C-alpha cells in the first residue's frame, strides 16, 4: 500500500491520521498504542506489545550495567 497521508498540526506537534484499514492491520484503535521503529530506510509501525517492551527495557538495563564487559567480549 502506498497512500499519501496528510500531516496535521496538533498543538505544538504534528501528527498523521491513519485510515481505518491501517488501524485494523495494526490491531489498534483510537487512544491505543503502537510501536515505532526507525531505520535507514524510514520508519516501521507495528502493534504495541507490552511484554516485549518490558523485556527490552530489562535488556537495556543489563547492557548499560555490563557495558565494559560487553565491550571486552566484542573484541
UniProtKB/TrEMBL annotation:
Domain SpoVT-AbrB: 8-53
Pfam short name (any one): MazE_antitoxin
Database matches in InterPro entries: Doc_partner, SpoVT-AbrB_dom, SpoVT-AbrB_sf
Domain of life: Bacteria
GO molecular function: DNA binding
Family matches, as SUPFAM superfamilies: AbrB/MazE/MraZ-like
NCBIfam families tied to this protein: doc_partner (TIGR02609)
Protein name: SpoVT-AbrB domain-containing protein
